[in-house]
Design a protein that fits this description.
Blueprint: H1 5-21, E1 22-24, E2 30-32, H2 33-36, E3 55-61, E4 66-69, H3 82-88, E5 90-96, E6 102-112, E7 118-127, H4 129-176, H5 194-244, H6 249-280, E8 289-292, H7 293-310, E9 314-316, E10 325-328, H8 330-346, E11 353-360, E12 364-371, H9 400-404, H10 412-422, E13 426-432, E14 436-444
Parallel strand pairs: 9-11
Antiparallel strand pairs: 1-2, 3-4, 3-7, 5-6, 6-7, 8-10, 11-12, 12-14, 13-14
Helix pairs in contact: 5-6, 6-10, 7-8, 8-10
Length: 448
């Protein structure tokens, strides 16, 4: 609504008021109460009767002939547009009054009388002197007080912002001081504002994860360097010794065989490290498909059976009347169970048994790799899936021949765990030292 909205509403109500003062009689006479009054009653004067009081009205008959007008108009008249009133039935505009003041006028066509209705055009007006004076006074006050309000508001906002941002600045400074060299440092969240406490806790949790990753990375690099140094040392020593003086053909052959064996082991280590590196780049892409787990286990068993027989170990492979299918990538699942079965053979003595077993339910397939070997001490169970972790020989006490003789790198179970997690499965281990070990792998069942 505009600045004249209150005046316009008042003019509309005045128009309704004046239409109620018009009386149309049965004999055709028409009276207007403010002028004539009622018979036997002398009406008291009102503002509408005072000349030039600023309260204006004038009423026309339907044909445009004047009916009555307010004494304030004197001999003058307000400008009246018959074109506008005929077109829309009413209109609003601002004109100049007879006294030369701005005047807001409202004209409207009304019907009066129920039995013999007559149509009239009623126009009312109101001086805008007070309204414009009020607006002028308001503009003056705004020009005077607005700069002070802006200055006061700006100063208040500055101090409020400075006070509010002070904890955030301190928080930001504390965060900026944390780097890779002091990842153990944590943010204090007890004596800071409540709004920042949750942020500090979340940031500390992130630092915990980062510290764990950095620690694992350092251990990985240290262990990898240690494992790579061993075969390099073996190769170097078997190269230096024959070069000191001439050797027989058999001695050269023996040195080359040792070097070749260590290079193969070194190649195996590098391949395992590359495999773990690929799995670290999660999500590692795999292509799952329908895989016959019984057939796969039998293939792996036949491949590893000569190694088991050489050690005098009996291998028992699953035999089922119907095929059991899992939802997995055949190559990586094959690598998984090759690691588990090879590990079982490695830690099972002569005359003992290694077997696989397959169990299924509606949604999952569980594959067990069971051996009757030396078992794993209970305190060590929680560490066996860590990279480079080996129970025997003890870390750092290997001889140079341990590597040449095919001792594991402590990576097989780490790779197995990564493969299983990538397939949405899980692995559990049960072991009793001196009795044997069971690895239990749960994978999703293939659904047609």
């Amino acid at each position: 609504m505009g600045i004249f909205s209150t005046v316009d509403l008042f003019l509309d109500s005045k128009t309704q008021f004046f239409s109620g003062l018009i009386e149309v009689y049965h004999d055709g006479r028409i009276d207007f109460e403010p002028l004539e009054g009622k018979k036997g009653f002398q009406r008291k004067a009102t503002l509408y009767d005072v000349p030039f009081s600023g309260h204006y009205y004038q009423i026309y008959f339907e044909d445009g002939k004047p009916f009555v007008h307010s004494p304030s108009l004197g001999d003058s008249r307000m400008a009246f547009s018959f074109e506008k009133i005929k077109k829309d039935g009413q209109y609003l505009e601002t004109i100049q009054s007879p006294a030369g003041e701005p005047l807001r006028v409202f004209a409207k066509t009304v019907k009066v009388g129920k039995i013999f209705p007559k149509t009239f055009h009623i126009q009312t007006g109101e001086s805008l002197n007070k309204t414009e004076a009020f607006l002028a006074d308001l503009r003056t006050k705004m020009w005077i007080f607005t700069p002070f309000i802006i200055l006061l508001g700006g100063t208040g906002a500055f101090w409020i912002a400075r006070f509010s941002l002070k904890p955030l600045k301190a928080f930001s400074k504390e965060v900026s001081e944390i780097s890779a060299t002091n990842l153990k440092q944590r943010l204090e969240h007890q004596n800071i504002s409540q709004e920042l406490q949750e942020l500090a806790k979340s940031f500390n949790a992130t630092l915990d994860r980062l510290e764990e990753v950095f620690t694992q990375q350092k251990h990985f690099i240290s262990n990898a360097s240690h494992e790579l140094r061993t075969p390099v040392t073996v190769i170097k020593s078997h190269c230096e010794i024959p070069l000191r003086r001439p050797r027989t053909q058999e001695e050269y052959k023996e040195a080359l065989e040792t070097i070749f064996k260590n290079i193969k082991n070194l190649e195996d280590l590098i391949n395992k490290l590359l495999t773990l590196s690929r799995y670290d780049q999660k999500p590692f892409p795999i292509q799952k498909k329908k895989t016959d787990i019984e057939n796969l286990l039998n293939t792996i068993g036949l491949m590893l059976k000569p190694i088991a027989e050489k050690k005098g170990i009996k291998m028992l492979l699953p035999q089922y009347s119907k095929a059991v299918y899992i939802d997995g990538e055949k190559a990586t699942i094959g690598e998984l169970f090759t690691n588990l079965i090879d590990n079982a053979i490695k830690y099972t003595g002569r005359g003992e048994t290694v077997k696989t077993n397959v169990l299924e339910n509606e949604d999952r397939v569980t594959i067990e790799v069971i051996d009757t070997g030396i078992g794993i001490p209970n305190p060590e169970l929680k560490n066996i899936f860590e990279r480079f972790y080996r129970i025997d020989p003890a870390r750092g006490k290997e001889t140079l021949d341990d590597f040449s003789n095919g001792h594991g790198f402590g990576l097989g179970l780490s790779i197995a765990k990564e493969i299983i997690e990538n397939h949405g499965g899980k692995i559990e281990v049960e072991s009793q030292f001196g009795v044997g070990t069971t690895f239990r792998v749960s994978l999703k069942k293939w659904k047609d």
